[in-house]
């Protein structure tokens, strides 16, 4: 008997703002209102001497720009937010250096430097420190803890199992009272050290067939390393926004929340493990340098090979 698959539609944009007027959000209404008020005031000020067709011709581009900023979207982000982010990025220093000083000192007088070139600014990362327990100090933004999560294959589960896992995950989402973020990142994987260890250990195997199988596996790993291998990593970041309290209290709260999340996700078939201090530091370093040397392939997930079109598009 064939089981009937249950399909539930989920909105693609779960963070969509609420509409307040004519299917427009409060942000869109505010942008359109500001543009309309500015154009109306300009019309009142120039009505006595500026012909109406000339005013309409001059106001049309401004009104169109306001409509584009209010209604336009790109990659799920409104154009007004993209414009604000572009303005902030243009006003910030372009060159950042790692230093403990408040500002970067100017070069000495004997150095021939271009006076028009601005000095680099100090690099300030969000993470101030990472404890041995994996607690990431975010300074004024509080603290955070990172959990590495496994994935669940829904295709191998029945309808009843799928509904049970979704219900368990929904209960965990409804229990959240503090900030939490699910991060899916792609990391480069290198199988060269693993192939070398396998080739080295093949000679000590007790049977010739085992040795041949080990060498064939090492050869396969060496051939696979020639491609750009990637692995997905799912992370759960729990943040404690309190910054004026004791660091020990924030650490205990995050540890308790991490334990609760691990137990709740275990009912969904997801294994969540808190990253220790060394693992968290490696994760932050790899995130800041995505094009650095690929780590040794120790992932238990699926390793994929990037196709040629994707590699060429990244160049």
Q: Can you describe what's shown?
A:
- The protein is of the alpha+beta class and 315 residues long.
- The chain has two domains: 19-91, no CATH class; 129-307, no CATH class.
- It is 43% helix and 17% strand.
- It is built from nine helices and 13 strands.
- It has helices at 26-46, 52-71, 79-91, 159-174, 192-202, 208-225, 247-266, 277-288, 308-313, and strands at 19-21, 24-25, 73-74, 77-78, 96-97, 121-122, 129-130, 135-137, 143-149, 180-188, 229-240, 272-274, 303-305.
- The strands form four sheets. Strands 7, 8, 9, 10, 11, 12 and 13 form a seven-stranded antiparallel beta sheet that branches.
- Strand 8 (135-137) and strand 9 (143-149) form a beta hairpin.
- Helix 1 (26-46) packs antiparallel against helix 2 and helix 5 (192-202) runs antiparallel to helix 6 (208-225).
- The longest helix has 21 residues, at 26-46.
- The protein is extended and about 100 Å long.
- The chain starts with 18 loop residues before the first strand and ends with a helix.
- Residues 308-315 have low confidence and may be disordered.
